[in-house]
Amino acid sequence: MKKLMLYVSILLTFFACSNDDEKSSLDEIREYLSASNISGVTESPYGIFYKHIQEGEGETGFDLPAQSATFTYKIYDLYTDELLGSSDVPVNYNLDEISYGIQLAILYMKAGGVSEFYIPSEYAMNTGNIRMEVDLLGLSEDYLTSDDKIQYYFKLNDITDTIADPSGVYIKHLEEGTGEVAGASIDQVTVTYVGSFMSNGVVFDQSASAVTFTLDKLIEGWQIGIPYMKKGGKAQLFIPSELGYDDGQERIFEITLEDFTLKE
């Protein structure tokens, strides 16, 4: 939260020092609320605007203080009402893994609350002023590990019968394949695959056809998970961030192992 507050203080200084002839994002939102006759909105000292639709119970994220949250959301362009992003399925995030605007919004809420926020562009990665609706299902003082998030995903999606590697990679066989498991002596693999973010299901990479890789040149999650597979088998690999791209995002790869060669 210290990093968030430092960013906020810098932005508030920027807003205060803006050229008098130029409208700040805060001014634009104030004008929008007035012109749209939207009442019951509070302007926070930290530069976002909020309206609680349903109060929730317990302490706010600020009071806990919260490290992680479970919520659903919708984000709209403030002026066109275009839907920019959403999740009707609950997502589970550490607060420092999401944009500053959403962090601040959640910190003003209580578990079980439903709120609407008006967030300046500078807090929304400069995508323009936004309106956001949040249904906050839970707050926690605990920082989520990759395994916490993977286990939550399994529970939410009723995923069972996975193999847990000691590294933290999980493997779920979808089609068994034939012959012996590939094992640790793999040199090259020929695969088709689809990679998606576990948090929202968005596909970030996929192969149009079978491709061949040297296994030890790939991310650690693949190096750990593929040796559990057989030729012709299909499996899902659930890969912690630290064994993938180390960016705070857990990933799911659905892989078909078309063929493999072993080291000599």
From TrEMBL:
Its EC number is 5.2.1.8. It is an enzyme of class 5 (isomerase). It holds the Pfam family FKBP_C. It comes from the Bacteria. Keywords: Isomerase, Rotamase. It catalyses: [protein]-peptidylproline (omega=180) = [protein]-peptidylproline (omega=0). GO terms for molecular function: peptidyl-prolyl cis-trans isomerase activity. Gene3D superfamilies: 3.10.50.40. Residues 186-245 form the PPIase FKBP-type domain. Belongs to the FKBP-type PPIase family. This is Peptidyl-prolyl cis-trans isomerase. It comes from Plebeiibacterium marinum.
